[in-house]
Write a structure and sequence with these properties.
Blueprint lengths: L1 E3 H8 L3 H9 L7 E3 L2 E5 H15 L4 H8 L9 H9 L8 H8 L3 H10 L16 H15 L4 H31 L1 H4 L5 H38 L2 H20 L1
Antiparallel strand pairs: 1-3, 2-3
Helix pairs in contact: 5-11, 6-7, 11-12
């Protein structure tokens, strides 16, 4: 069947802006045109429903695009999709609820949202939804504020970190996609279960690797600064604290 844009919106319940955004990022093929009139067909509706279903389960658009790359093959990638879903905590809190549970002004949460740092939490309808894990992370961020660090400077640092980490993550996804997910397919030995198992094995390993590297570099550079400043008493205390922290990490 053929559908005009208004009919697609009515049938799927997906707003015009969302449909156009999906087209702009390659999640939806462009429509045919009759003069200036955009014409969609059943394949467009099927794709929209599929993307909406994946998005509702909490999958980022980058991951959805990866899973749908090369055509609609949801069955062949079902194992990987299920593995991704298990690592995605279902969103449950809105911005106002998050602010209330943290005991902070709603404006502070809105400031973070408007900065783009929380873009990964944006749902299909444009709202922000947060999980229990997000709540715990936010509580950790509040500890930084309680130690006197200014919110706006922390936010600026978070924005710069977010921009850098997104580039790194995109490259990591491409590596996984090229050398794990598609490697078997190139040899004619595609095994979705093996890909899902690899994902479940690699995700905690990569997370631990990144966290460990960040912590080691942070401690090393902080101690170097103290040594250069000549604050020997503070350096001695910091060295003891760093040694205790390394010991606790080895026990984990």
């Amino acid at each position: 069947m053929r559908y005009e844009l208004a009919e697609v919106v009515r049938v799927t319940g997906i707003p015009v802006d969302t449909i156009r955004y999906y087209q702009s990022v390659g999640l939806l093929d462009p429509p045919a045109h009759e003069g200036r009139l955009a014409i969609y067909d059943d394949s467009h509706l099927d794709r929209l429903r599929l993307v909406r279903s994946m998005s509702a389960k909490g999958l980022p658009l980058k991951v959805i695009a990866m899973l749908l790359a090369g055509g609609e093959r949801p069955e062949s990638d079902q194992a990987l999709l299920l593995a991704l879903e298990k690592e995605t905590t279902a969103p449950r809190y809105g911005g106002a609820e998050l602010a209330q549970m943290l005991g902070v002004p709603r404006a502070l949460v809105a400031l973070v949202e408007h900065s783009g740092v929380a873009e990964a939490f944006r749902q299909e309808d444009g709202s922000m939804r947060y999980s229990e894990a997000d709540l715990q992370s936010a509580r950790g961020a509040l500890k930084l504020l309680k130690h006197g660090m200014p919110a706006r400077k922390l936010l600026g640092l978070a924005i710069r970190h977010d921009r850098a980490i997104r580039k790194t993550i995109d490259e990591a996804i491409d590596l996984f996609n090229d050398y794990v997910r598609r490697h078997g397919a190139r040899r004619g030995e595609a095994d979705p279960e093996a890909v899902a198992d690899a994902f479940k094995e690699l995700l905690p390993a990569v997370t631990a690797l990144v966290a460990h590297h960040f912590q080691r570099v942070l401690i090393a550079r902080a101690l170097r600064r103290l040594k250069q400043s000549g604050e020997h008493q503070t350096l001695e205390v910091a060295n003891r604290a760093a040694s205790e922290l390394r010991f606790r990490l080895r026990l984990q």
